[in-house]
Design a protein that fits this description.
With about 450 residues, the chain is mainly beta. The chain is built from four helices and 29 strands. The strands form five sheets. A ten-stranded antiparallel β-sheet has the order 1-2-17-21-14-11-16-9-8-29. Strands 6-19-18-10-15-12-13 form a seven-stranded mixed β-sheet, with no helix packed on it.
Length: about 450
């Protein structure tokens, strides 16, 4: 068993995709089999499967729990009242719309009334269907209250949570995660968890995928090292509570709707576990970026942290890409992202700092959506400031920033809430209106042979 890494009161195991084991009581893990007739300490054996039983071994995901009471011990599920009408997991003409316009949202304000993570979730856009096991949804959340006497379970897909304001303490069946802005947490489909707010109000982003799971991207010609290192992904160690808790509710998201079941104990009663289907977190500051070292601007795919691939090689259902602090050194090059249209659709968020291609209007906690084949790129101020520096500008470092992008091959449909939101920036298009023609057919053509040398 790997020695846990300590972080305050929290301990973690490291490694992406590893088969790990952890026990909160010595000897709680059965020594020679998964499901003995009588488990140590009188525990129940229970398996959770993240893939079909016959998925090839290289991608098969499952874990075994050894718990005080099995998770099946609850009353029947009933529709939750009130529900959260702002959540979607199936996108069609009846509940969402398409729009090729460049869209941007200002940071959503923290609500005045008590709101926990479940009620603070709202869907911005998405594509496909959790029923068909193919697609994704992009949500945001604002919360000012810890979850109380309830746990959340997402039966629709995996959550990738990007907190932007306020730390999260996420208790799962495998143990506890403390997740700060600048880190991410991945909560696989089917896990029960609670979200507590040690710093008070919190805000952030959530990417959800249906029918698949996040993986590390292939590195190709980069080689064996770089980008996100497997050892920097942290998995919680076993932690449990054993107490009578009448009226405890399990809130299950199923087909985008919320259901509740009542039980009399905490779901976090797993004394030991082993497997490779686990929640985990990652510190984005540990990402090792690769970049252009001579000329031109690299594609954003070079900054992929995690990917949910499709069956088509090189095409992602959802990529999670970051734009961290890094050096810019390209010579004779327009260093910010170039103007482009893309067959993929791009949703961007900003955790802290600024974004190099948007001087004004793109704020921490805000978001933008540039849909399939919709043109986008640097705003007027960013473009003019860049070309004004000329070719003699030396190396410069982008600091104190963390932007990210969810990128997908599927065209997202946009929810009514997102289009009717008071935080929708109706003047977003204005940031490009000032771009003027610099065309001069009589100007001298620069000699850039040998990169200007």
């Amino acid at each position: 068993m790997e020695e846990p890494k300590a972080s305050g009161d929290f301990q973690y195991l490291s490694g992406f995709g590893n088969h790990l084991s952890s026990e909160a009581l010595v000897g709680a893990l059965p020594a020679d089999q998964n499901s003995p007739l009588i488990c140590p300490y009188g525990l129940y054996a229970e398996q959770i499967s993240g893939t079909s039983f016959t998925t090839p071994r290289s991608h098969n995901l499952f874990s075994w729990f050894y718990r005080i009471k099995p998770s099946v011990t609850h009353e029947p599920f009933k529709a939750r009242v009130p529900s959260n009408e702002r959540l979607l997991s199936e996108f069609s003409q009846s509940n969402s719309t398409t729009n090729p316009t460049q869209l941007r949202w200002k940071p959503v304000e923290i609500p005045d009334s008590p709101t926990d993570f479940i009620d603070g979730l709202f869907t911005v856009c998405g594509s496909g269907s959790s029923f068909m096991r193919h697609g994704y949804a992009i949500h945001m959340y604002t919360a000012n209250k810890s979850m109380d006497k309830c746990a959340f379970c997402n039966a629709d897909g995996d959550f990738l949570i990007v907190p932007q304001q306020g730390r999260l303490v996420i208790t799962t069946e495998c143990g506890r995660l403390k997740v700060s802005p600048g880190e991410i947490a991945i909560l696989p489909q089917g896990f029960r968890f609670t979200v507590n707010l040690p710093d008070g109000p919190s805000r952030g982003y959530v990417g959800e995928i249906f029918g698949t799971h996040f993986r590390l991207p292939d590195l190709g010609p980069i080689g064996a090292n770089g980008l996100a290192s497997p050892r920097d992904f942290l998995v919680p160690t076993a932690w449990y509570e054993d107490k009578f808790n009448p009226g405890y509710t399990i809130v299950q998201k199923f087909g985008g709707e919320l259901f509740v079941a009542v039980q009399d104990f905490s779901p976090f009663n797993v004394v030991a576990w082993h497997g490779n289907y686990v929640p985990y977190k990652y510190d984005l500051n540990k990402f090792c970026p690769y970049n252009t070292v001579l000329f031109d601007h690299s594609d954003p795919s070079i900054n992929t942290v995690l990917t949910a691939p499709t069956d088509k090689p090189g095409v992602a259902l959802l990529d999670f890409v970051i734009f961290p602090p890094r050096w810019l050194v390209a010579e004779h090059t327009f260093r910010p992202p170039y103007y482009h249209r893309n067959c993929m659709s791009e949703f961007m968020g900003l955790v802290y700092g600024g974004y190099e291609a948007k001087v004004d209007g793109f704020l921490p906690g805000g978001a933008s959506l540039h849909n399939c084949m919709t043109p986008h790129g640097p705003d007027t101020k960013s473009y003019e400031a860049t070309i004004a520096r000329g070719n003699d500008v030396g190396p410069s470092k982008i600091t104190e920033t963390m932007a990210f992008m969810f990128e997908s091959c599927l065209i997202p449909r946009i929810t009514p809430w997102a289009l009717q939101s008071p935080f929708l920036d109706h003047d977003y298009y204005q940031c490009w209106i000032g771009l003027r023609s610099h065309f001069n057919p009589k100007s001298e053509v620069p000699n850039l042979q040998n990169n200007g040398e």
